[in-house]
Design brief:
By secondary structure, the protein is α+β, with helices and mostly antiparallel strands. Helices cover 49% and strands 21% of the residues.
């Protein structure tokens, strides 16, 4: 009996140890993948911001050189004075952008909530006893924290560069207004606007959580230990003066200058007895509180209303200009049906498309389709392969959700090769379609759009057998 008891205890101990080891391995793998994903994203975004900043700097410098030349033809002396230090200023910024970004205080840029969450989560993991003892995982956690610091500094640098561009544009606007040359700044206005939109887009890309990020943060937020760590160590917590040991309670430092309700009521009563105006006393206290609140708010820069809404441009902007190539791609599926004829059965044609958004109004794309034979009626349904096709198309918005659509297609119909002699003249297995018509797009959720198309095939009459001149399609874009 005693032997059985000892064996049972040993087995339980082994199972517990094995379970702990499995949990430990899973935690290390998740932490490593989480760090690698965020580190990769931060590094890519830092490079993109730097590349965009250098491109805009070069373009702005060229625009100023053109403006200087135009002004020189009007007033050479004023042209030299106005653009005296232009090259030096741009060269100084070029040097800043090409040098490795110095790690600065988080307060140098605008507060980004997701950045705060990531940095605090990696700080928490780095202090975890299980992960801290694993050198490989610990090195990855320290590396990703360094990359996040670099990206945060790069965002701050981009905001400073954006402010420089705005101030430079405003200065030139004030000076050139004396010569009625404000319209010459249109190109500069576009560059400043699109740069601001590009930086905003990069921040949105940073906030777009990958699958491993969602999983890791979701697991961490289930932990009460992490919640407490987040409350005490996040950048936002510093605004309220929470200490790492204070839990959810305010420390004496954060309570400085605050009064209890009883103390305020006593002071109001005392002021009334002494003949002072209680309303005046309250106004003074509110003014003091507002000043202290303003001082606290200045420690962290939150996005202003103007930054959230964006600058109002003096031209019609192209919202696709600041997006990456992949962000400008639009994928779609559509279906159409064809009636039976003397040579072919009824068909259902399913197509997949990918389009590139030229601007907010137009999309140019290509696609491929597959024809499924359906038989010759409900009583004689018979599935068969009836060929495939290649497509190209252009959609252009004309008003609201209505687009004019055009396209060229080639369809391969192998069934026509199996027709017994005599073969009708002009019969070919490859047939052409030239389409033009209207497309109606309607929203399906946040990211999807349904499409309804009515198209006229002006090449249908040259096909043998003749294809349908009117084509009706319905589909979805995403």
């Amino acid at each position: 009996m005693r032997l059985i008891y000892l064996i049972t205890v040993c087995l339980c101990a082994c199972l517990v140890t094995q379970g702990y080891a499995q949990d430990s391995t899973l935690m290390k793998k998740t932490a490593a993948k989480y760090a690698a994903s965020v580190s990769s994203k931060a590094g890519d975004l830092e490079k993109k911001i730097n590349k965009q900043s250098l491109r805009v700097l070069k373009k702005m410098q060229k625009l100023e050189a053109k403006l200087q030349g135009k002004l020189a033809r009007v007033d050479s002396a004023e042209s030299k004075r106005l653009f005296a230090n232009s090259s030096e200023k741009y060269d100084a910024w070029k040097e800043k952008l090409t040098q490795p970004t110095a790690i600065v205080s988080p307060q140098a840029g605008r507060y980004i909530a997701y950045m705060d969450t990531l940095k605090t989560s990696f700080s928490f993991l780095n202090h975890h006893s299980l992960l801290a003892n694993d050198k490989e995982v610990s090195d990855k956690l320290q590396a990703v924290q360094k990359n996040l610091d670099g990206l945060e500094s790069k965002f701050g640098q981009a905001e400073a560069f954006q402010q420089f561009l705005k101030e430079r544009r405003q200065y030139l606007k004030e000076q050139l207004s004396k010569f009625n040359m404000v319209k010459q700044l249109k190109g500069m206005n576009k560059e400043v606007y699109y740069y601001a939109q590009a930086v905003k887009n990069y921040k949105e890309m940073f906030k777009d959580r990958r699958k491993i990020e969602q999983k890791a943060i979701g697991l961490l937020r289930e932990s009460s230990v992490f919640k407490k760590f987040m409350q005490n160590n996040s950048q936002l917590a510093s605004l309220f003066g929470f200490s790492s040991a204070g839990g959810s309670n305010l420390t004496p430092v954060s309570m400085t200058g605050l009064q209890t309700r009883a103390a305020i009521q006593q002071q109001i009563s005392s002021s009334a007895i002494m003949g002072n105006n209680p309303q005046q006393f309250l106004n003074q206290q509110l003014q003091t509180a507002n000043q202290q609140l303003s001082q606290q708010k200045n420690t962290i820069k939150f996005p202003s209303l103007e930054e959230n809404l964006g600058e109002m441009p003096d031209f019609k902007p192209n919202q696709q200009k600041t997006k990456s190539f992949l962000q400008r791609l639009e994928y779609g599926l559509n279906i159409q049906f064809g009636k039976t004829n003397n040579y072919l059965p009824s068909t259902g044609e399913l197509a997949a498309t990918v389009g590139y958004k030229l601007n907010d109004n137009g999309t140019l794309g290509v696609g491929a389709s597959y024809k499924l034979g359906l038989g010759s009626g409900f009583s004689r349904i018979r599935f068969s392969s009836q060929g495939y096709g290649l497509r190209s198309y252009l959609d252009w918005k004309i008003k609201g959700s209505i687009y004019i659509s055009g396209g060229y297609e080639k369809n391969y119909l192998p069934e026509l090769n199996n027709i017994e002699t005599p073969v009708p003249p002009g019969l070919e297995s490859w047939q052409e379609s030239g389409l033009i018509g209207l497309t109606k797009k309607h929203s399906i959720g946040k990211k999807r759009k349904g499409t309804i198309q009515i198209l006229f095939d002006f090449l249908s009459y040259k096909n043998m057998p003749r294809s349908r001149p009117i084509v009706f399609r319905t589909g979805i874009n995403f």
